[in-house]
């Protein structure tokens, strides 16, 4: 048995995470050449493949978070994606400038925290206020994988 407020809180969590991904994805689209250059500067392999995939993951992932579609598998996938972007994009251990290193440390651990939020969505599911919730036969908090 779930409390009615649970689905509202889960919706707010999904929307908060979606803002990050939608904003990031749209900014990548608007500044695509700069994003590709950034990935190249970080030594990301296969940039011509990685850049469009990362952009699509952020835009589509953000949209799926908003509508609450396939949240359990999406939560697990986006947790892994967020950790991968932390390691590749916020590699503070390679920074010698103290100010920039501090900034990268904050961003790295921010990504770890965001991944934790995605893991919670993996456990809870999308809640009733979602496509997953509407499709759930029992109308519970989440949906099955």
From TrEMBL:
Keyword terms, alphabetized: Cell membrane, Membrane, Transmembrane, Transmembrane helix
Family: Belongs to the DoxX family.
Segments traversing the membrane: 12-34, 46-67, 74-93, 113-131
Membrane topology: Multi-pass membrane protein
Compartmental location: Cell membrane
UniProt main location, coarse: membrane
GO cellular component: plasma membrane
Organism, scientific name: Paraburkholderia phymatum (strain DSM 17167 / CIP 108236 / LMG 21445 / STM815)
Pfam families the UniProt entry points to: DoxX
Name of the protein: DoxX family protein
PANTHER family named among the record's database cross-references: INNER MEMBRANE PROTEIN YPHA-RELATED, OXIDOREDUCTASE CATD-RELATED
């Amino acid at each position: 048995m779930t409390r009615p407020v649970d689905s509202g809180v889960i919706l707010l969590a999904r929307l908060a995470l979606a803002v990050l991904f939608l904003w990031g994805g749209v900014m990548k689209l608007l500044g695509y050449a700069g994003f590709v250059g950034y990935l190249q500067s970080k030594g990301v392999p296969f940039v011509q493949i990685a850049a469009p995939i990362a952009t699509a993951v952020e835009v589509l992932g953000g949209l799926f978070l908003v509508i609450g579609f396939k949240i359990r598998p999406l939560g697990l996938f986006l947790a892994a994606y967020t950790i991968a972007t932390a390691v590749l994009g916020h590699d503070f251990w390679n920074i010698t400038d103290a100010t920039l290193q501090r900034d990268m440390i904050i961003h790295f651990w921010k990504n770890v925290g965001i991944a934790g939020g995605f893991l919670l969505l993996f456990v809870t599911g999308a809640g009733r206020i979602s496509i997953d919730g509407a499709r759930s036969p029992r109308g519970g908090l989440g949906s099955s994988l």
